[in-house]
Specification:
Strand content: under 5%
Distance between the termini: 36 Å
Number of strands: 0
CATH architecture: Up-down Bundle
CATH superfamily: MFS general substrate transporter like domains
Largest sheet: none
Number of domains: 1
CATH class: Mainly Alpha
Order of helices and strands: HHHHHHHHHHHHHHHHH
Structural class: mainly alpha
Length: 434
């Protein structure tokens, strides 16, 4: 490293995590851009395409808890390398299918493979970052995810126009493989074993060892405490709602723009990138704002709660407004507002999950995310059903607004300072924020 430049090791770790998050959304969003061509080539109905979208979420949800538990047991380096490698293989295989059953099987395997990715990344953040920095760190992770989702429509549209719908899946699969090589050679689960760790890096990690949400090996998983925790059920319910409107954007948005508003494929790719592009900025802003409030208010509970509630209410307003619009341009602006609000809250939810989880961040994060997987399966099918009945997606958008409003109210009861299991002693420097 050039003399005079001192980048903390944890910041470089965070870049790797953000890149992995971005690749997850490169792969997920690619199929939404290719959907019209896939339906034409494979002669699929909208409901069949809805099942192809949704089966990923079902498989993801089934495998989420086992993958999160394995993450706590086996470590991030091993698990995340295998997760990204497998999902990259199945992403590439999506471009090789020739019939509907094959598409379902490959997308199901893709869901199984990707399960555990975000709990594993959250586990790394819990290990490397203090509670007062976790909102920002989770925000950077989700910024990476949203940037991946924003880049995917643009890149996929170009590749699809040049080479057809199969090639983008092959290209995105290769990108994931390259990340595995980078991560496997540069990441270490134990900071003390990292060749680039400085004294300052290790001192920061040493202080972090006793902070709530830090991931340490050993000890039985607190299944009973987790399932009996009212706070955890509130978090589960709140986060379950996040996928309802978001997965419409992730799956049907290009089709909505093309078929309901007459937008060209090229312009649909640009418009589809806008909500996630703005969401990238919103993610890191929401996490940083929440950390600032934690420090200023001296309350972990209110520092997380205010941003989470505000974000969900903004999302609710944006989706309802989009459903009332008759022009594609104004509708997409409303959806940008909705995604901005949602992404203020998402990194805060993951920070809360780490803070209540004690030493079991992978398992508890997977528990929270399982609910979102169920909603992710429902969302594209609900949108397809609404379109078949009304020849419009507007009712789907307005129902998403209602879902986010009701889920936002749960933030009024969620307490980030209330751990599922008794937390270890917190260093004096951190006590003011817990």
């Amino acid at each position: 490293m050039p003399q005079g430049i001192d980048i903390p090791l944890r910041s470089r770790i965070l870049v790797l995590v953000a890149l992995a998050a971005g690749i997850t959304y490169l792969d997920r969003v690619c199929i939404s851009i290719a959907a019209p061509d896939i339906m034409s080539a494979l002669k699929l109905s909208k409901m069949q395409m809805g099942y192809a979208f949704g089966v990923f979420a079902v498989a993801y949800g089934i495998a989420e808890m086992p993958a999160g538990w394995l993450t706590d047991r086996l470590g991030q380096r091993r698990m995340l390398t295998w997760i990204v490698a497998l999902w990259s293989i199945f992403t590439a295989m999506t471009g090789l299918v020739w019939e509907f059953p094959g598409l379902l099987i490959v997308r199901c395997l893709f869901g199984f493979a990707e399960a555990g990715a975000f709990p594993c990344m959250a586990r790394a953040i819990g290990r490397w970052f203090h509670p007062t920095d976790r909102g920002r760190a989770n925000g950077v992770m989700w910024m990476g995810a949203r940037l991946g989702g924003a880049i995917a429509p643009l890149l996929a549209t170009l590749l699809l126009g040049w080479f057809g719908w199969r090639v983008p899946f092959l290209v995105f699969g290769l990108i994931g493989g390259a990340w595995c090589v980078l991560f496997g050679t540069t990441y270490r689960d134990d900071p003390a074993q990292h060749p680039d760790a400085t004294t300052a890096d290790l001192e920061y990690v040493r202080l972090n060892l006793n902070s709530p949400g830090t991931i340490k090996n050993g000890g039985p998983t607190p299944w009973k405490a987790m399932l009996r925790s009212g706070n955890m059920w509130l978090i589960f319910g709140m986060y379950s709602a996040t996928s309802y409107g978001f997965w419409f954007l992730l799956t049907w948005l290009p089709t909505y723009l093309i078929q309901q508003h007459g937008v060209s494929l090229h312009r649909a790719g640009i418009y589809a990138a806008l909500p996630l592009g703005v969401g990238a900025i919103s993610s890191v802003s929401g996490g940083a704002l929440s950390d600032l409030l934690v420090r200023r208010l001296g309350s972990l509970m209110w520092g997380r709660r205010i941003v989470g509630l505000g974000g969900f209410l903004i999302a609710a307003s944006g989706f309802v407004a989009a459903g009332l619009m008759v022009k594609g341009g104004t509708a997409i602006l409303c959806l940008v507002l909705a995604e901005m609000g949602l992404d203020l809250a998402v990194p805060v939810a993951w920070a809360v999950c780490l803070e209540v989880s004690g030493n079991f961040g992978g398992t508890v994060s997977a528990y929270m995310n399982t609910g979102a997987c169920a909603t992710a399966f429902i969302s594209p099918l609900a949108a397809a059903w609404v379109y078949s009945k009304f020849h419009s997606f507007d009712m789907m958008l307005m129902s998403a607004g209602i879902v986010y409003f009701l889920a936002g109210l749960l933030w009024l009861k969620i307490d980030a300072s209330k751990t599922i299991v008794p937390a270890p002693d917190i260093p004096e420097a951190l006590q003011a924020t817990s």
